[in-house]
Amino acid sequence: MSGAGGNATQQLRLARHHHRNQRQSHYSHTSFTSTDNQNVRCSPFATYLPTNTPNRVVFALLIINKAGGLVYNRTFAPGLQKLDGNDYLILAGTFHGIHAISRQINPAPAAQHLPGYRRPPTTGLESLESSHFRLTCFQTPTGVKFLLFTSPEQPNTEVVVRRCYEIYGDYVMKNPFYSMEMPIRVEKFDRALGGYLVRP
Amino acid sequence: MPGPVAAPADKEDNFKPLPPTKPFQSTLRYPSSRKSIYDRNLNRTRVNESSLASFAYLFNTLITYHHSKSGSVSEIETRLNRAGYPIGTKLLDLLLYRQPPRTATRPTRILELLQFVHGTVWRALFNRTADALEQGTEKKNEYMIIDNEPLVNSFISIPKEISQLNCAAFVAGIIEGMCDATGLSTDGVTAHWAGEGDELWPGKTIFLLRFKESVVERDEALKAG
C-alpha cells in the first residue's frame, strides 16, 4: 500500500474519532429520556427542520467493479474537496479489500445450514458513518459495488443507492457500446444520474 | 473366434444402411397453458405488448453482432436496415388485417402511406404516433418522419468516435420494407440525428424517405386524373 492509501484510511479513522467526541459532547449538553439515544447523530432540532434543508446532500457516487477497480466516479454537490484521480483509485481498491474482510469476519456463531449447500453469504460492509458524511455501500449479486457518499442527515440512502443501480442497469447494461468492467463513459447514464441526484 | 458371418467380399461390404430417422421432436418450449405465441389470435393487440427490457437486450445483441462484423458506420446502418426490412414487409399485411372489419384499405398514394406509417405503424410499434411529418423543401420526392425520442434508442448512448451512427436505422429498414410492400418503392430510407444542441430532445431523429422518381410521377398522374 502506498503512502497516499495510508493517508486515506487515516483520514477515515480520524473522522470517526472526531465523530465519537462529538457524540459525547451531545450527551453532556442534552438530556435525552428516550433509550435509543445511541442513534442520535446530529442536533436534535434537525428533525424539526423542513424536509428540503440544504444540509441534506448527496455528495458523490463511486462504482467499483468486481475486481476492485474504480469504473465510475462523480460528485454532485458544488464546492466539495476533491482527491486527485490516483487517490480515488486507491480509495476504491482499499475499500474493496476492507469489504472483502468484513464479509469474512463474523463474531456471531455460524448459522446452521444444510449440508451440501454453500454457506449463505454475508453482506459485508453496508454503511460507514462519521460526523460529516455517511457512506452507503450496496453490492449487487454480481459483485459490483455502489458507494454513495451523503451528508449524515440524508434519509433513505438505501433507496437512493438502489435507484442508482436501476439507472445503471438501464443505461449502462443495456447499452451495446459499453464493454464490461471498463470505466463507464455513457452519456445517457450521466444525464439520468444528474437528473436524479443533482439539486437545481 | 466366432466373428460375424462373413459378408460376401464385394462392394456391399462398405454399405451401411442409414439410421432410421428420429421422430420429430419440437424444441419449442410451451408455457403452462400450452399456448405459444403462434396460437394467439392475430387481432389481439392489447395483450401482445412485450417487455421493453427484453427488447432492449435483444436489440443490444443485434447491434453488438453487426458492430463486430462491419468496418464502418454506414455498414452497421445498412446491416440494421436489412434486419428491419422483412419486418416491414410482413407488418403491412398484419396491420391491414387488424384494421376494423370492412374498413381496411391499402395505402396506394404517397400521402396515404406516409400517414399510415406516421399513425398506425408507429402506434402498433411504439404505442404513440410519430412527432412530425414533413416534405423536403428542395426535392419533391423526399419526405421526413420525425421522432423526438425513438424508442429503440432509449437505452443507447453512441460513443464519440462513431457519433454519426443512429441505431434507429433498424426502424428505417422497417419503413423501407413497408414502402416496398405497398408498391411505392424508395431509393432507401435512412435515419439521421437532428437533436444537435436541442436541450429538450437530444435524441431527435429524422427518417428520410426518398421515393423513386417513377413512383412520384405515377402519384402525380393519379392525382391529376
TrEMBL record, chain A:
Single Gene Ontology BP annotation: endoplasmic reticulum to Golgi vesicle-mediated transport
Gene3D superfamilies given in the database record: 3.30.450.70
Pfam families to which the protein is assigned, alphabetical: Sybindin
Top-level division of the source organism's lineage: Eukaryota
Listed Polar residues bias regions: 24-36
Residue spans of biased composition, Basic residues class: 14-23
UniProtKB keywords: Endoplasmic reticulum, ER-Golgi transport, Golgi apparatus, Transport
Locations listed in the record: Endoplasmic reticulum; Golgi apparatus, cis-Golgi network; Golgi apparatus
Homology family: Belongs to the TRAPP small subunits family. TRAPPC4 subfamily.
Protein name: Trafficking protein particle complex subunit
Organism: Neohortaea acidophila
Automatic annotation (TrEMBL), chain B:
Gene3D superfamilies: Trafficking protein particle complex subunit 3
Subcellular localization: Endoplasmic reticulum; Golgi apparatus, cis-Golgi network
UniProt-listed GO biological process terms: endoplasmic reticulum to Golgi vesicle-mediated transport
SUPFAM superfamilies: Ligand-binding domain in the NO signalling and Golgi transport
Keyword Transport: yes
Region annotation (Disordered) ranges: 1-29
CDD domains xrefs: TRAPPC5_Trs31
Keywords: Endoplasmic reticulum, ER-Golgi transport, Golgi apparatus, Transport
GO CC list: endoplasmic reticulum; TRAPPI protein complex; TRAPPII protein complex; TRAPPIII protein complex
Family designation: Belongs to the TRAPP small subunits family. BET3 subfamily.
General function of this protein: Plays a key role in the late stages of endoplasmic reticulum to Golgi traffic.
Subunit structure, as described in the record: Part of the multisubunit TRAPP (transport protein particle) complex.
PANTHER family the UniProt entry points to: 41-2 PROTEIN ANTIGEN-RELATED (PTHR20902), TRAFFICKING PROTEIN PARTICLE COMPLEX SUBUNIT 5 (PTHR20902:SF0)
Protein name as it appears in the record: Trafficking protein particle complex subunit
Organism listed in the record: Neohortaea acidophila
